[in-house]
Recover the amino acids of this structure.
């Protein structure tokens, strides 16, 4: 049943891709798929460990810049550069898991906000790698087997494959011992310690996996939209990714996908008046925190459990 | 329950998306995709540009619709600008793009347009790389920023041949380009740069730097702050004892000039449109008046470029240019004059405007108007400067 | 040459003092709210910006006299703060770990406000420069200081002094400190903590508003200032210790002087990284800050 | 004066107090004795209004205090000095006393109360400017009690006033409480260590697992060898 629901959520952008044959909608579907990937990865941290990493966009940005640098300056194939960039992101994720050893809840989120701001400033002030606030334009699309850029509907299918792989991976992880351990830690850290669980090690592992997924999304994003700039990876983006997970339903496989599907296309559909987007996102953040702490899917599950 | 709900939802989402862009194929007017900063940090410039363009659109369409501006917001965000370019291209099927006013956003549009073979006429974007060699699609109305630096040196040299200058700028792409041109030409013209200060984009105070600048005793200081810092920088320079005639602003929108304050009367600035120039064309004078009726202040260079851009397109339509290929070919051949100033418009093989520049001195300033004195007018070709090597 | 060096030294002092006290004021407002309610007000930069923008709109754009422009600004922001407290913030008071919800909510509010500003003020101008109530400048040899900046400095100092005096000497001020130091004991002494929470939020917001107006007087505003101020004041609060006004003052001044001194010798960008690093280090070593319990 | 009837207190699924009846009469010192987690603090907190009882009632004098918040109860004269840190560590002794009289708006009245407290605890007068956080545990407890007295209570409730204190200090606190009773104050105190309670209380409730095990006068309890063995010989 759950697999069916997941399949349907992932299929929604694909309906847009093949059903409507509209280039712009196909592009939006691609954007939604990348955000689904990100939201799933973020969920591994937020949903399954309870930590709010406001650094997520920054981590994605590191991989994005790294991948772009490898492809455009060093001439590497995108498919070789992407894992390297993502590995760099995972490494940064490892470093970022250090605050989690000492800091909890609010202070962890705050440290994340600070680190994210430092990332943004670094993206602007190390123009040798990032070209500063000007950004890097004309980033080529990922190449296919024939060496040319993958054309549009197929590229989005590749993105969908990434999402499916990530969701399947996270789903399997959650059923494994490791996943159950993470949930134990989230529910009661002291109990977990008492049971002899190495809290730090497990959490660090979650950080690394989640950051790797952020990195995959970052590399794909830059090459998909053809541009990398500091503002695509700033604290608001981190916050909005958090919103996608929280609004969809954290700690579930479907929730983040649903949240990304609902929220990610918004800025692209509101092209005429996008300042409204900030207001809508902000209001959504407030409303979700107030009334839907379990998110939409969490709410549906609860209703279902009751009936 | 969810199993039945989700397919409906997906249909709904798609339907909503489909409604967002009506794909009506109107073949009569020229469809111009206006990719503009209507929100985010560059909102003011995006809106100012659109104000000018809308005025021209209304005038041009007074006797039947000839030009259709399809406006979309890029949030001052390059990634969004690339998406908007895509939307205008594939969804609206526009004949060409226009509208961006800022370097980052323009570069994103550049990237998309060159790939998608969609012509672009950039109204206000001074970053040189927008027309780097090999550019096929992009044409640029505004002279490039490296040239502004060059022009500043040339101008200062007319006042004092062995002048010492200082530079204080916010660290923005366009300012870095100005600085590059300035340094290049200063070295060749024997002008010494005694101090060079770049501020982070979040700077709000320059007390210490202005004192340091004072200590270096430059003859002229070139100022280009970003946003509010521009006004603060100007005031603090005057506070510390610099004379207005020592301050040189490479550019200034109407609102910016007004926020420098009355104490800055006598400052020099390089702008590309002055609403009280005696040699404005009749249409230029009408433009100033009509604009003032709507906004209570005179138009500046941003409004002028965007107004002129629409009129340039109108001229091309009158000459029979149609479709993307037609527009591109017509832009390559352009040899006309700006409707407001009579200054020539020609593009080189990369799409860069054959460059020109006015330099002004502020004569008076009130709440809703300013007057300047024409001091200098110069023309140059981009070839005199290795612009594309100076700035990456 | 001596005079030039003297000029730089004096400018470091004036800049450090002015920047330091204004940031201290804003950080004190933030610190008061967080110390008392456990509410990390991430939208404080946007409130600050809103205050400055309204003050500019009334005083400069619409040319209202100061005695009307300033109170109207306070009234509008105060009303919005009250509405926000009564509809949203109040709901979380019973939660022990409410600060994380508050951080997210106020970030959301910040996003709403920043969207509204771009949709409204963003269309008017990109720089908001308040017309100086008095022109000219005093010369404290050899440094000239504009009267507006002198006034801003004096007012900022008085706001801080008044706040410290209020917290030490007034009954309600003591109650605020009592709630911050020991919530349960405060309730048992008859202090209605919910009322104190509301009061602290309104007072903190009023101080932030004052900071915004003073900043607009001394410098100029644009729409990006909000986020910058949020980050800087959070750093000052965390390093100084949430709840400690004295901490905010001391660290704010240190921040002002460091920025001034660093910019004599190094790139101003270095200073930006420096305060972020200071905040991170403090979070690791002593999250309660230098001056708190 | 204070009357608890069929009081039940729950924290989620945990039953802390299970149907307790208790009365305190004017002028008495009543002790509540029981091991850690017996529900003593919950009882006092319910009486002070910090905790809402699940069922049952709290009556003070003629008033039924149903949903009254702590400040209302305080105004009625029902004051609780909480367990361990009943003080504000970053304030001076003087400020702690002033906060104790928070509800009193008359400056003269506050000054009078301070004078009275200074008479009871002369050391607090000498140390009026000292930061409370820097004082010893015993002195902090005195500040806490003094601050409670500043509210001018009719009934003073003390939650484990002797916890973690040296025997000498406990004795001194005991003497002070005796003096207060002589001035006509009613006192209810909870103690894990029964020594202080048996030394000064008129009556004692023994509470275990949320229920009252025994309710007797102090003399009769002290004659009970079982009580002496389980509560007095341990400590």
């Amino acid at each position: 049943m759950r697999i069916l629901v997941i399949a349907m959520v992932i299929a929604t952008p694909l309906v847009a891709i093949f059903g409507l044959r509209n280039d712009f909608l196909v592009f939006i579907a691609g954007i939604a798929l990348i955000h689904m990937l990100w939201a799933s990865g973020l969920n591994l941290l937020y949903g399954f460990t309870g930590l709010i990493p406001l650094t997520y966009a920054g981590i994605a940005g590191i991989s994005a810049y790294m991948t772009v640098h490898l492809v455009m300056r060093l001439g590497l194939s995108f498919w070789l550069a992407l894992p390297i960039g993502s590995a760099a992101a995972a490494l940064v994720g490892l470093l970022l898991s250090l605050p989690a050893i000492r800091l909890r809840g609010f202070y962890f989120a705050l440290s994340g906000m600070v680190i994210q701001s430092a990332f943004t400033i670094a993206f602007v002030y190390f123009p040798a790698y990032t070209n500063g606030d000007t950004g890097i334009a004309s980033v080529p699309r990922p190449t296919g087997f024939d060496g040319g850029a993958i054309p549009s509907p197929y590229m989005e299918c590749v993105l969908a494959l990434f999402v499916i792989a990530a969701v399947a991976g996270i789903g399997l992880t959650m059923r494994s011992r490791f996943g159950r351990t993470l949930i134990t830690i989230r529910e009661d850290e002291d109990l977990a310690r008492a049971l002899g669980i190495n809290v730090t090690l497990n959490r660090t592992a979650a950080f690394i996996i989640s950051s790797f997924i952020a990195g995959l999304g970052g590399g794909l994003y830059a090459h998909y939209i053809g541009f990398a700039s500091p503002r695509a990876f700033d604290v608001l983006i981190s916050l909005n990714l958090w919103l996608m997970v929280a609004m969809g339903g954290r700690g579930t496989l479907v929730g983040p996908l649903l949240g990304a599907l609902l929220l990610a296309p918004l800025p692209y559909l509101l092209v005429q008046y996008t300042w409204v987007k900030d207001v809508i996102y902000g209001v959504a953040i407030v409303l979700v925190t107030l009334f839907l702490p379990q998110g939409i899917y969490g709410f549906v599950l609860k209703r279902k459990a009751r009936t | 329950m969810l199993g039945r709900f989700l397919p409906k939802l997906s249909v709904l989402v798609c339907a909503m998306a489909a409604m967002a862009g009506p794909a009506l194929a109107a073949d009569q007017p020229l469809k111009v995709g206006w990719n503009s900063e209507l929100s985010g940090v560059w909102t003011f410039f995006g809106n100012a540009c659109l104000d000018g363009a809308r005025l021209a659109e209304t005038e041009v369409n007074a006797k039947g619709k000839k030009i259709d501006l399809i406006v979309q917001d890029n949030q001052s965000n390059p990634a969004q600008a690339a998406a908007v370019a895509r939307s205008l291209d594939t969804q609206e099927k526009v004949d060409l793009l226009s509208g961006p006013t800022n370097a980052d956003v323009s570069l994103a549009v550049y990237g998309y347009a060159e790939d998608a073979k969609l012509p672009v006429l950039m109204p206000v974007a001074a970053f040189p790389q927008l027309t780097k060699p090999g550019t096929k699609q992009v044409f640029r109305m505004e002279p490039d920023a490296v040239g502004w630096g060059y022009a500043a040196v040339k101008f200062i040299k007319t006042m004092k041949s062995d002048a010492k200058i200082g530079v204080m700028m916010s660290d923005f792409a366009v300012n870095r380009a100005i600085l590059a041109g300035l340094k290049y030409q200063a070295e060749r013209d024997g002008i010494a740069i005694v101090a060079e200060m770049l501020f982070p984009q979040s700077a709000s105070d320059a007390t210490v730097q202005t004192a340091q600048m004072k200590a270096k005793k430059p003859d002229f200081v070139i100022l280009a702050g970003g946003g509010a810092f521009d006004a603060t920088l100007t005031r603090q320079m005057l506070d510390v004892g610099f004379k207005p005639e020592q301050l040189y602003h490479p550019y200034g929108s109407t609102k910016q000039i007004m926020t420098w304050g009355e104490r800055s009367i006598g400052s020099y600035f390089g702008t590309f449109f002055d609403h009280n120039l005696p040699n404005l064309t009749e249409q230029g004078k009408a433009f100033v008046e009509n604009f003032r009726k709507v906004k209570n202040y005179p138009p500046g260079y941003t409004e002028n470029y965007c107004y002129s851009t629409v009129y340039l397109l109108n001229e091309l339509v009158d000459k029979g240019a149609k479709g993307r290929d037609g527009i591109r070919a017509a832009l390559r051949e352009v040899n006309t004059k700006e409707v407001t100033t009579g200054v020539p418009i020609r593009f080189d093989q990369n799409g860069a405007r054959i460059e020109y520049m006015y330099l002004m001195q502020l004569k008076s300033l009130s709440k809703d108007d300013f007057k300047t004195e024409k001091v200098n007018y110069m023309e140059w070709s981009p070839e005199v400067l290795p612009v594309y090597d100076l700035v990456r | 040459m001596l005079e030039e060096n003297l000029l730089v030294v004096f400018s470091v002092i004036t800049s450090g003092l002015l920047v330091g006290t204004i940031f201290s004021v804003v950080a004190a407002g933030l610190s008061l709210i967080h110390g008392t309610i456990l509410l990390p007000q991430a939208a404080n930069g946007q409130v600050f910006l809103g205050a400055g923008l309204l003050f500019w709109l009334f005083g400069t754009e619409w040319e209202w006299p100061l005695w009307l422009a300033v109170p109207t600004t306070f009234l509008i922001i105060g009303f919005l703060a009250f509405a926000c407290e009564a509809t949203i913030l109040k709901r979380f008071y019973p939660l022990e770990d409410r600060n994380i919800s508050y951080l997210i909510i106020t970030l959301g509010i910040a996003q709403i406000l920043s969207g509204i500003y771009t949709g409204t003020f963003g269309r008017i101008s990109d720089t908001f420069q308040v017309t100086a109530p008095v022109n000219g400048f005093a010369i404290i040899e050899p440094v000239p200081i504009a009267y507006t900046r002198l006034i801003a400095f004096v007012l900022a100092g008085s706001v801080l002094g008044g706040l410290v005096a209020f917290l030490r000497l007034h009954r309600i001020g003591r109650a605020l400190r009592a709630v911050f130091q020991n919530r349960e004991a405060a309730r048992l002494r008859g202090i209605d903590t919910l009322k104190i929470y509301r009061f602290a939020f309104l007072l903190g917001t009023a101080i932030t508003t004052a900071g915004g107006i003073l900043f607009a007087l001394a410098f100029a505003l644009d729409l990006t200032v909000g986020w910058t101020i949020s980050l800087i004041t959070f750093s000052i609060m965390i390093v100084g210790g949430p709840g400690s006004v004295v901490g905010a003052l001391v660290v704010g001044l240190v921040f002002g002087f460091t920025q001034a001194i660093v910019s004599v010798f190094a790139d101003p960008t270095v200073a930006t990284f420096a305060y972020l690093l200071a905040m991170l280090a403090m979070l690791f070593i002593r999250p309660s800050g230098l001056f708190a319990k | 004066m204070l009357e608890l009837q069929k009081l039940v207190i729950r924290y989620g699924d945990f039953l802390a107090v299970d149907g307790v009846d208790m009365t305190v009469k004017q002028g008495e010192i009543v002790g509540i004795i029981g091991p850690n987690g017996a529900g003593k603090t919950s009882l006092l907190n319910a009486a002070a209004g910090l905790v809402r009882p699940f069922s049952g009632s709290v009556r003070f004098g003629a008033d039924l205090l149903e949903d009254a918040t702590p400040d209302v109860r305080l105004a009625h004269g029902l004051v609780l000095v909480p367990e361990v840190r009943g003080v504000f560590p970053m304030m001076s002794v003087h400020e702690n006393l002033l906060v104790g009289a928070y509800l009193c708006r008359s400056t003269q009245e506050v000054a009078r109360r301070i004078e009275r407290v200074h008479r009871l605890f002369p050391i607090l007068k000498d140390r009026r400017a000292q930061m409370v956080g820097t004082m010893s545990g015993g002195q902090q407890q005195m500040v806490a009690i003094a601050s409670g007295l500043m509210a001018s209570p009719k009934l003073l409730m003390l939650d484990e006033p002797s916890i973690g204190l040296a025997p000498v200090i406990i004795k001194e606190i005991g003497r002070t409480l005796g003096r207060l009773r002589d001035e006509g104050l009613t006192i209810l105190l909870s103690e894990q260590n029964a020594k202080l309670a048996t030394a000064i209380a008129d009556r004692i409730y023994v509470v275990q697992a949320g229920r009252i095990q025994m309710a007797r006068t102090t003399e009769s309890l002290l004659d009970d060898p079982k009580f002496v063995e389980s509560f007095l010989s341990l400590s």
Notes: The beta strands of chain D are 2-11, 14-24, 29-33, 55-60, 63-64, 78-81, 155-159, 186-191, 203-208, 211-217. The two ends of chain D are 32 Å apart (CA to CA). The mean pLDDT of chain D is 87. Chains D and B do not touch (no CB pair under 8 Å).
